[in-house]
Amino acid sequence: MHITVRVPDLETIKAQQDEVARKVTQKIYDVLSEHFLRFQRAATDDKSVPEEIVRAARDEVARENPQLPASTQWILTADLLNSLNWPTLAEYALQNAERVSPAAVHAPNVQFLSALVSARSGEKRIFLMASTPVADPLALKEWNAEQPLTNRASGKLGFDVALSMQKIPPLKAFGYSLTGDLEVANGNTDAARRAYTAAAAIMPSPVLTMRIAATN
Rg of the chain's alpha carbons, rounded to an integer? Predict the structure, then answer.
């Protein structure tokens, strides 16, 4: 099941999702490269570094879609980050959407996305004022989004981002998780399992538990 946010030109945006994902990932890589030494000095529990990554992702989404409301840009960013298997980063984006427009997060499609992100990250409450519903088990089972960085055009960039993240304490888990997805796409299940296990040792989550089980 795909997330549908009813905004102008969304179908066009969705049709270009892989290209948008590549551009967002390139933006993230540029930010990682520019601030690498500063990020490396950050503590594992420093939330400011992942927040900077989420802002970089949103900046690129906004650059690609300047006509959209800010809250919708944040929601699309959350959807994209979730598809990259980074539900914790998607949480930051959803929280920013609530700050920009508290009413927007009550929309059924955003509530579904928040339920999905919550189920995958293990975080029961995402919003400050709005509720975070519990995902319907059947809907959660049926939901599927292909990792957009596993195509041939984005694979190398994906590995570059993953390796950079692995060297930055607050981003290590995200780097290992991405590595796992890329190794699965390449048919390297043993390497994928090791990567997912390394990510789960730092930041346990239901989605990583499922990824590890799928590689056994």
Answer: 16
Taking the complete model, does pTM exceed 0.85, yes or no?
Answer: yes
Weakly modelled stretches of the chain, pLDDT under 50: 1-11
- Delimit the domains of the chain by residue range: 10-142, 149-214
pLDDT digits over 67-111, tens only?
A: 999 999 999 999 999 999 999 999 999 999 999 999 999 998 899
If you write DSSP's letter for every residue of 32-74 in order, what string do you get? HHHTHHHHHTS-TT-THHHHHHHHHHHHHHHHH-TTS-HHHHH
What's CA 71's distance to the chain center, in Å?
A: 17
Q: Work out the angle at residue 127's Cα, subtended by the Cα atoms of residues 125 and 129, and round it to the nearest 5 degrees.
A: 115
CB 94 within 8 A of CB 87: no
